[in-house]
């Protein structure tokens, strides 16, 4: 088989996996209608070049076909019948800034968005906050959707983290691949719901810096073979 044919076959698998992820985001009630988008990193021609497969702009998930997933280049050019998501810059810049990012999901999920509209940093009210890399989850400064300013604010909020809120907008999460990113997105929305619920009872008791440091250390080893 030629290298091109092998690339095509790999591409077809990723297109289906990306569409399946978008559907799963809908089934998990992270997305409704055309809100929300997802992408997966493609190997670049040069190591430093970001290329990705990304969901198209403005098409309801039930009408999306695998061939509608757009291949977007770092300069904004794309291949495919439909334009990439209006948030393609945000996805591109996350891949460029964070080598560990293999897939990026963006959603206007109800509980994350409710907290994002309060522009709060989520404090260490639960140890699972550490799953996202630190003892808090930040909220990126507000900027208009689809702009470079939103992308810059998001990359800043994601330093040493794999998720953040976007002020008056929603949330973004990245993982090593689509399966991992989807699991993290569902966990993140669940944590946002738990925080929202505990706020109904009053201010929660927060974990201390020492308690969170211990959890972060455990998460560093979690799922990795010990030598
Ligand atoms: Zn959005």
Describe the protein's architecture and organization.
The mean pLDDT is 91. The longest helix has 25 residues. Strands 4-3-2-1-5-8-7-6 form an eight-stranded mixed beta sheet, sandwiched between helices. It is globular, with a radius of gyration of 18 Å. It is an alpha+beta fold and 227 residues long. The termini are far apart. It binds zinc ion. The site of zinc ion has 6 residues, from loops.
Keywords:
alpha+beta, 227 residues, binds zinc ion, 8-stranded mixed beta sheet
Question: Nutshell version of this structure?
Answer:
39% of the residues lie in helices and 15% in strands. The protein has helices at residues 3-27, 88-97, 110-117, 148-157, 178-200, 209-221, and strands at residues 37-42, 51-54, 70-73, 78-79, 103-107, 139-140, 163-166, 170-175.
Topology:
Elements: H1 3-27, E1 37-42, E2 51-54, E3 70-73, E4 78-79, H2 88-97, E5 103-107, H3 110-117, E6 139-140, H4 148-157, E7 163-166, E8 170-175, H5 178-200, H6 209-221
Parallel strand pairs: 6-7
Antiparallel strand pairs: 1-2, 1-5, 2-3, 3-4, 5-8, 7-8
Helix pairs in contact: 1-5, 2-4, 3-5
